Protein: Recoverin-visinin-Y
Organism: Mordacia mordax
Amino acid sequence: MGNNRSAALSKELIDDLTLNTEYSEQELTDWYSAFLKQCPDSRISRERFEQIYSKFFPNADATRYAQHVFRSFDTNNDGTLDFREYVVALHLTSSGKIHLKLEWAFSLYDIDGNGTINKAEVLEIITAIFRMIPPEEQRSFPEDEDSPEKRTEKLWNFFGKKENDNLTEGEFVEGVKNNIEILRLIQYEKRHSHA
Ligand SMILES: [Ca+2]
Ligand SMILES: [Ca+2]
């Protein structure tokens, strides 16, 4: 183990992250210590990520969705999340800035990363989302969105797209911003009460 990285964050990484996120140097340093305790080799594997993610969805199967989320966070595509990717991911998904969230959502749906979304990609993500939704909750869905296929059809129509059309990032972001129904359909907000 001759090339163990030091436990301190490099100056470059701190500068990079304070510039690109809203976190302070102190927050990042504290966070990094915690991160190293959880991940001594300073990386999160896909399997580990899936395990962590699935704990939030004990009554359903979040594995497939977690794989897509992992891909969207693994920006250098090396099959692991390093500290930078982890912090940027948290920033994207929790900062509350709608534009950042939508850019991230676009990358989630753009499975092959070619810069546009096609209908098959929407269907794949919606199918993964459906697996996270407990069956009893699915039964309460409106009839025209109670299956992945129907929900995809509805979304695609909201975007005004034909079967073989593609959706650009600009169209995606504008569409979601301008139509609350689209925003509702592209995501899954877990219900908190299970009364
Ligand atoms: Ca990576
Ligand atoms: Ca694509």
